[in-house]
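HUMAN: Please help interpret these tokens:
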Amino acid sequence: MQGLDFRRKRRNSNSRKQVKPRRTRRKASRGGLRFEDGKAPLHFAREKLHRSRAGAKDVVIWAVELLLVCMLAVFLVAAFGQRVSTAGDSMAPALRNGDVLLINRAVYHIKSPARGDIVAFRKEENGHFSVKRIVGLPGETVQITDGTVLIDGEELTNQIYVSNIEYAGEAEQPVELGEDEYFVIGDNHAASDDSRLPSIGAVTRDEIYGEAWFIVSPGKDFGFIG
């Protein structure tokens, strides 16, 4: 009878160890989101960069628009918003003493002063502005005879706002105007110091500040000058 080898069986039974199943590690996740290959398809950085660029572009556009508006405002004020006050009633009834006028300085860069225009001029650099109406143009000969204005020897019937002039002054004799000279008279000629006086005489183009176009003084005369 063969002997039983219990030791060998025990060794074999002990050598057999139970292999525990490996625990699979779950891939790290953040906020319940699973990422594959360890790369997260996030676009937050790109969106933030895009928004910052768009915001900077809007700021630049706004700054340029503001600059253009300011430049336009300065131009409009300089061209059309210069103010001059009238002193006395030499231009009545069109203008009255103390009326505040807006002067169009740009218009005479486009065209030359015309007969009938009401202009503001200054004979001296530090002197006050005078407001009168143009009667004689450059190259013409002006004379006042029997209360009427003669241009080149002919009575002026159009674009004339004065009549029955009692004081002819320098225009009692023919006054020849130069290439850039204008003869001005106030509508209320009896109370006007104008080109008829030797102290004023003809007004040059450089002395003309601009054309009066609007009365800004409050009251019934407020509005465009007729």
